[in-house]
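Title: Prediction job returns without error message
Component: structure pipeline
Severity: low
Priority: P3
Assignee: unassigned

Description:
Job completed but the reporter wants confirmation the result is attached to the right record. Sequence as submitted:
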Amino acid sequence: MDRGDRADDNAEHLYRYLMKTGQADNAYFVLEADSPDWARLSAEGFRLLEFRSREHIAALINARFLISSHADNSSVARRARISAI
């Protein structure tokens, strides 16, 4: 993920690279559903998860890696709290 409310940063470009090289099979891009970038990324084939949705939380619980160009405290702390449960 980049930021929860918008894309167009390093994580978007990394995800695009993973798609191009066939390595995005188990990767998701996290974004708020009302973001102006949602439709653009969806049309491009990004596997999107809505930020803070049940699916997003489930993905966090099961994730091997959490990659973000903006790994702020809320993203990192949420992952730590979920992992501790």
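Comment from assignee: result matches the submitted record. The longest strand covers residues 29-31.
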